[in-house]
Amino acid sequence: MHSPFVYRLLTECLYKKEKKPAHQKVLEYRQVLLQDDREIKVTDFGAGSRVFKSDKRKISAIAKNAGISKKRAVLLNKLISYLEIKSALELGTSVGISSAAIATGNDVKLTTIEGCPETAKVAGEYFERFGLENIRLEVGSFEEILSGKAPQPPKGEQKKFQIQNSKFQDPSRSEASNPGPNKKQQTSNTSEASIPTLNTKQQTPNHKRESSEQTPNSKHETINTSEASHNLQPTTYNLQPTTDNRQPTTDNRQPTTDLIYFDGNHSKEATLKYFEQLLPLAHNDSVFIFDDIHWSKGMEEAWAEIKGHPRVRVSIDSFFWGIVFFRKEQEKEHFIIRL
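The structure assignment produced for this chain is given below.
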């Protein structure tokens, strides 16, 4: 191990044995989903599923087969805390287990994008129930949202989600991403009694956000961009190169983000496309995490190209994740580690 940065990352974070209230809350989030036997109709936009043969799936089965494991959920939560991630973008919400792992107990603002409206609705319910007010959920295809072409449904069709135009930028520095106390979350038509509960006592992490049950005044914000054929103002993404290094954005400085978690389309072409498209959002201390880098030959080829990119200085292959850093002060190195 030649890199002091990677050595500290392993010994002080990933390999460190510790139990925090946030870890327990993340595991409870996952466990409740595993007990949710409601059935929904799923729309696949990515490479498809190797497990499911039908588009009608139980939420519990989605959580078991498509969600991250208990171990990875805790590792992701620890990583966000250790790296002091303040702003994050996730491609592929699913039912929100990785989103909860990023957001729970951490001082981070997360924007997560999900293409399937039914899956996103489930995630939105659980974000509200677990008090995850620091998550912004957008519904629509990655291509539309990232290119700024996602239509917004008119006010008359705001049935399940609170609607707002959005502009991706560092959420921790954006007034638009921090709605005031008068903005109320619209609730789903799914009754609260139909959502399973754990028999174990819920623990609340020691931070400002309250956990457990839904509250009608929750500030959690869900943005539905799945309705098409409406002549509305598009979402705008300003993806231009920047030299910003965690500095406050100004009118002439492009926004950046500290973390991007890629877990939405496990194909070579899409992975490389989103990597190149979102690369301008990376600053010197940013981290990109790619899920399932050994999922297929195409994903392994995509990972090889990503870790060889000139801007990537440190890359870590943990078998299930590919993690890259852009630290200009370091020599280019690649690590294979066991987590």
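Interim note for the steering committee: Confidence is low (pLDDT under 50) at residues 47-52, 153-193, 199-252. The first strand starts at residue 39 and ends at 41.
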